[in-house]
Specification:
heterodimer, A: about 280 residues, mainly alpha, 13 helices, B: about 425 residues, about 75% helix, about 0% strand, elongated, transport (chain B), cell membrane (chain B), transmembrane helix (chain B)
Chain lengths: ~280, ~425
């Protein structure tokens, strides 16, 4: 229904964006408020009387927040790198080579992506503990495979299938081996799809909570989501610092979403929407 | 140009092999293992129950470090005792040594005994493969009867005030008793237990309530928003990006944001609700049962409706415009167009996004963990939260795994249900080429 939008529509649109963005707006205000305005009478004021960056500074000076950011970055980046590598080969094979049992393999991959993490946590925890891998990067990267690999295989297979089959045929006629066809012809062409999938895997690994909560309990090994939740003490909740930390994490993600918006949408919808 | 002798088929299998192996090891094996663990009484806070033991065994490390204590204790007491008591104690000591000798008749135990003894002397950790040894029924009977005799005799002597350190008697016997590992297989006991456990049913009810209500709201709102933004307007890109932001933010961080917004004293949303009369008091949101469930659902709806709208919007764009034009020519009303064109054409997109949303909602953990922690009074405790608490707060891994398996089975049932409806649509695509 490609209708032109009326003024009422724009009013609705502004309202919609406001509702979606309101929590962020309010958290930004909270992060800039000094404690005296965060609580008490001024708690509901939109205007900050004495804005300050104290909360942001405290997050880094009084808490190992930089360390959390580093941990999350390392874990998410390595997870992305290795799962994309393995998934690329698998997806190429599923999309382009002919062999039996592909439907079953894709079915298994899809089923695994539906597994609840809680159902795998007890053996994984016991294994990591006996191997001494709790509180290590590897201890998180390994279980992150449970969601990263199915996501990557499924998405990449769909992207790879969009590449015209003639290219492969032409390469074959020219005498290229399967390996050469794959690395010289398809992977360069599939780069946008690979990149899109990488963004999705990175965001998923960055946001993961349950494994990070149970496996990396040491202060210096926590990831950002776990770190922020653990800011709260027994009796007090440092809302100013939580807000500041949330803003620090949110802003890069927002920028990433703004830059890669089209790619992310195509990656998210390719599985669900048939063209 | 180099030619490989490998056929396309072999190459295909080779390329998918790493992925398949990893998926088997990291995802499928743990789920099966979870089920296996759920049949056993495993507790991380009890050293003899940290692993699955299907038969009687001996914790060699404990045994090696405590047996000399028993012998030493008995010798010391015998030295300071007189007459028949002395004889009794010496007999006990002989029995203990006899028991030890009997155990060491098995060559393996004897050699391990030496190795572990050496390691303990050097204050080195004992490796796991040395630690645990299986025992035959005879060996177990012998250990049990010996320990029993020693225990009761010492107890009697203690009561008769014949021992110089009666409190030590209990300690040394218990030390060795603890090194005997009993099989912790319990079968389906946990499953039976949970079937009659009101807390489990409460958690299951909460999970279902949360899933059904939030997914229903998200679907209706999402479809409505998708149809609204499926128009030509200025700022489409901006709207799409805005819609993605809640999706990209870590769930726990958005949960923390909402926790602040709902706060009973300083929360803006709580304040707005009070001002508009939606709630009687700001505190109601997170401190009452209904309020907490409402809060959790609202936070989930905020986070995932935009995502739902996005998927449905993408689906709407694949519907050919000509269909609507034809319908308009035929004089179909807006409602008719919606039910006759939009919904049928959107069916597979709708079902796929519903499937993924339902599963996500059913598995919900982080949102609730960060926002309410399952409270107040377990009113927002979902089955994943209950499983987590059982495993990591009560350290009862067998019990928690049984709950985790229940979550898994429910998820499997939901998926099978959806796939039955979706059927060919979903797998037809993957079966291509």
């Amino acid at each position: 229904m490609q209708k032109k939008a009326g003024p009422l529509f724009y009013v609705f649109l502004v309202l919609f964006i406001f509702i979606v963005m309101f929590p962020f707006l309010w958290i930004l205000i909270a992060a800039l408020k000094p404690p005296s305005e965060l609580f008490g009478e001024r708690a509901f004021d939109f205007i900050i009387q004495n804005p300050s960056f104290d909360n942001f500074v405290r997050v880094f000076t009084e808490r190992p927040f930089a360390r959390y950011l580093w941990n999350s970055t390392v874990v998410a980046a390595l997870t992305t790198l290795y799962s994309i590598t393995i998934a690329s080969f698998a997806a190429y094979a599923i999309a382009w080579l002919s062999f039996r049992g592909k439907a079953i393999i894709l079915g298994i991959v899809l089923a695994v992506s539906m597994f609840p993490q809680i159902a795998t946590i007890s053996p994984i925890f016991m294994f990591m503990q006996s191997m001494g891998l709790t509180n290590s990067y590897l201890g998180l990267i390994i279980p992150y495979t449970t969601f990263a690999l199915p996501l990557a295989i499924w998405n990449l297979t769909i992207f790879f299938r969009k590449i015209p089959i003639d290219l492969g045929e032409a390469a074959k006629v020219d005498g290229a081996t399967i390996w050469q066809t794959m690395t010289r012809v398809f992977f360069p062409l599939a780069m946008p799809g690979v990149f899109t999938t990488a963004i999705l895997v990175f965001i998923a690994a960055w946001n993961e909570f349950l494994f990070a909560l149970t496996l990396n309990t040491q202060e210096t090994m926590k990831t950002v989501p776990v770190g922020i939740v653990m800011f709260q003490g027994m009796f007090t909740v440092p809302w100013g610092e939580i807000s500041a930390a949330s803003i620090i994490v949110t802003v890069p993600l927002v920028i990433m979403v703004l830059i890669f918006q089209r790619r992310i949408i195509s990656g998210l919808t390719s599985g669900a929407v048939k063209e | 140009m180099k030619r490989t002798s490998m056929s396309e088929k072999q190459m295909g299998y080779l390329l998918i092999l790493p992925a398949i192996v990893i998926i088997l090891v990291i995802a499928i094996w743990p789920v099966m293992r979870s089920f296996w663990i759920s049949l056993h009484d495993i507790r991380l806070n009890d050293p003899t129950k940290t692993e699955v033991h299907n038969s009687y065994g001996l914790d060699m490390e404990r045994y090696v470090s405590t047996l000399p204590n028993l012998l030493r204790y008995l010798k010391k007491e015998a030295d300071s005792a007189q007459g028949s008591v002395k004889d009794q104690l010496l007999t006990l000591r002989q029995q203990a040594e006899h028991m030890n000798a009997m155990l060491r008749q098995t060559g393996e135990i004897a050699s391990r005994y030496q190795k572990i003894d050496q390691l303990l002397l050097e204050f080195k950790p004992v490796p796991n493969e040395l630690k645990y040894v299986e025992l035959s029924n005879e060996q177990i009977d012998s250990i049990r009867s010996t320990l029993n005799t020693i225990g009761t005799t010492l107890n009697d002597l203690g009561k008769q005030k014949q021992l110089s350190k009666p409190e030590g008697a209990l300690g040394v016997v218990q030390g060795i008793t603890a090194s005997v590992i009993e099989p912790n297989y319990v079968g389906f006991a946990y499953y039976k237990q949970f079937l009659t456990d009101s807390r489990m049913w409460g958690a299951l009810y909460n999970t279902l309530f949360f899933t059904v209500v939030s997914v229903a709201i998200e679907l209706v709102l999402g479809l409505w928003i998708a149809m609204l933004i499926n128009k030509q307007f200025i700022g489409r890109g901006l709207v799409r990006a805005t819609v993605l932001i809640p999706w990209a933010i870590p769930t726990v961080i958005s949960a923390m944001m909402w926790k602040y917004l709902y706060d009973g004293q300083n929360g803006m949303v709580a304040h707005l609700f009070e001002v508009t009369g939606l709630v009687s008091d700001m505190g109601v949101l997170l401190t009452t049962k209904a309020g907490a469930m409402f809060s959790v659902i609202l936070a989930d709806v905020w986070k995932t409706t935009p995502f739902m709208a996005l998927l449905l919007f993408a689906g709407l764009q694949t519907i050919p415009h000509s269909l609507y034009e034809a319908a308009q020519v035929d004089g179909a009303s807006r409602t008719q167009q919606f039910f006759r064109i939009t919904l049928p054409m959107l069916k597979s997109t709708l079902l796929v996004s519903l499937l993924f949303r339902t599963l996500d909602a059913f598995r919900v953990f982080d949102l609730i963990y960060a926002l309410t922690g399952g409270g107040p009074a377990n009113s927002t405790e979902t089955i994943s939260i209950l499983a987590y608490k059982t495993m990591f707060a009560q350290m009862s891994f067998g019990e928690g795994s049984a709950l985790a398996v229940i979550v898994f089975l429910c998820v499997a049932l939901i998926s099978i249900g959806y796939i039955k409806i979706l059927g060919a649509d979903l797998l037809g695509e993957s079966g291509g080429r």
